[in-house]
């Protein structure tokens, strides 16, 4: 829809989604499987299965799989540009 994008991101061990910014969009990561190292603004924290990481619009964010198993994330971005 023009209001919400949902998707699954899978990162193999050592892979990363490099830090970036969505100027007008909020984003969440829900950890389905594995553990990731998340950067949101100036903070860096680990999050595992069942945890949610929130990145407000305009805040730099990214994630790295530093584990030895696949990291599976459900990602939501809103509003999604048309």
Cα gyration radius (Å): 12 Å
Structural class label: mainly beta
With helices defined by DSSP (H or I, 4 residues minimum), what is the helix count? 0
Task: Give the neighbour order of strands across the main sheet.
Answer: 1-8-3-6
Question: What can you tell me about this protein's structure?
Answer:
The model has no long low-confidence stretch (mean pLDDT 95). The strands form 2 sheets. A 4-stranded antiparallel β-sheet has the order 1-8-3-6, with no helix packed on it. The chain has a 4-stranded antiparallel β-sheet with strand order 2-7-4-5, with no helix packed on it. It has 82 residues and is mostly beta strands. Helix content is 0%, strand content 59%. 17% of the residues are buried.
Structural features:
globular, four-stranded antiparallel sheet, mainly beta, 82 residues, 8 strands
SSE layout and pairings?
Elements: E1 5-11, E2 16-20, E3 26-33, E4 35-40, E5 43-48, E6 52-55, E7 61-64, E8 71-78
Antiparallel strand pairs: 1-8, 2-7, 3-6, 3-8, 4-5, 4-7
Offer a quick outline of the entry.
The chain is an all-beta fold and 82 residues long. The chain has strands spanning 5-11, 16-20, 26-33, 35-40, 43-48, 52-55, 61-64, 71-78. The strands form two sheets. It has a four-stranded antiparallel β-sheet with strand order 1-8-3-6, with no helix packed on it. A four-stranded antiparallel β-sheet has the order 2-7-4-5, with no helix packed on it.
